[in-house]
From TrEMBL:
Domain C4-type zinc ribbon as annotated: residue spans: 204-238
Residue stretches in coiled coil: 97-124
Any Pfam family: Zn_ribbon_9
Keyword Cell inner membrane: no
Keywords: Coiled coil
InterPro entries listed in its UniProt record: CT398_CC_hairpin, Oxidative_Scav/Glycosyltrans, Zf-RING_7
The CT398-like coiled coil hairpin domain, residue ranges: 14-194
Species lineage: Bacteria, Bacillati, Actinomycetota, Actinomycetes, Streptosporangiales
Keyword Coiled coil: yes
Name of the protein in its database record: Uncharacterized protein
């Protein structure tokens, strides 16, 4: 392939712009905020599950407390009714009096037991409610942190995309003076190796950092100025300049 030396030298500027675009793309993919947002999103998912569990437990305890309090009220009503009967003097039989007093005492013990159950449930419910509040507070903090990370990511993306757009404009302008066949070869090599052209500097390929053998340097030295030469090691286009050491 033949191409004017100046056209070949433009490949170095093009390679520099492509490398800049690669760096910008890598920076966009590896922003610290992306990993932070992913971790915070995972935490929010776990918190949502924990909150549902804590709220379910609190609701269940609320129903248990309501039932226990209802049982206490029922026992209290029954005991109050028996006391009224006892105090009214309507029961005169010693046997009936003894039975009524025994029932009142039994109801009192039952009420005491139920009230202990109510207190226990209340304590457990307060703990469950406190856990719900704690988890909700943590969720709000994580949500705010993620929102801030989202804002930083958006700002970074905007800056990177602006730089990338400007670099692409420069690249498009750079390709206008490069022959189509040379540009096609460069593009093919870039797809294969990541960098399509490299400077030959002091007898060394700056693409693969390989020092060329004397025989290869002599071959390049004798090649026409407009001949497109390639590195035998990495196959990139070698661009010759005054720094090539030929």
């Amino acid at each position: 392939m033949k191409a004017a030396p100046e056209a070949q030298k433009r490949l170095l500027d093009l390679a520099g712009l492509d490398t800049a675009l690669d760096r910008l793309a890598h920076r966009r993919r590896t922003l610290p905020e992306l990993a932070e947002i992913a971790e915070l999103t995972t935490r929010l998912g776990r918190l949502a599950t924990e909150i549902i569990g804590a709220e379910t437990e609190a609701a269940d305890l609320g129903r248990d407390q309501a039932k226990a309090e209802s049982d206490v009220d029922a026992v209290r009503v029954r005991a109050d009714r028996d006391r009224k009967r006892l105090d009214s003097g309507q029961v005169s039989s010693p046997r009936d009096l003894a039975g009524l007093q025994s029932e009142i005492a039994s109801l009192q013990r039952r009420q005491d037991d139920l009230e202990e159950i109510v207190l226990e449930i209340m304590e457990r419910r307060e703990a469950a409610d406190a856990r719900v509040a704690k988890l909700a507070g943590e969720r709000d903090e994580v949500t705010a942190t993620r929102s801030a990370a989202d804002d930083r990511r958006a700002a970074a993306f905007a800056e990177i995309d602006k730089d990338a757009d400007e670099t692409r404009r420069k690249r498009d302008a750079q390709t206008t003076d490069i022959p189509a066949d040379l540009l096609a070869l460069y593009t093919k090599l870039r797809e294969q190796t990541g960098v399509g052209a490299a400077l030959l500097q002091a007898g060394r390929c700056q693409g693969c950092r390989t020092t060329l053998p004397i025989a290869e340097l002599n071959r390049i030295r004798s090649a026409a100025h407009d001949e497109v030469v390639r590195c035998e090691e990495c196959r990139r286009i070698l661009v010759r300049t005054a720094e090539s050491g030929l």
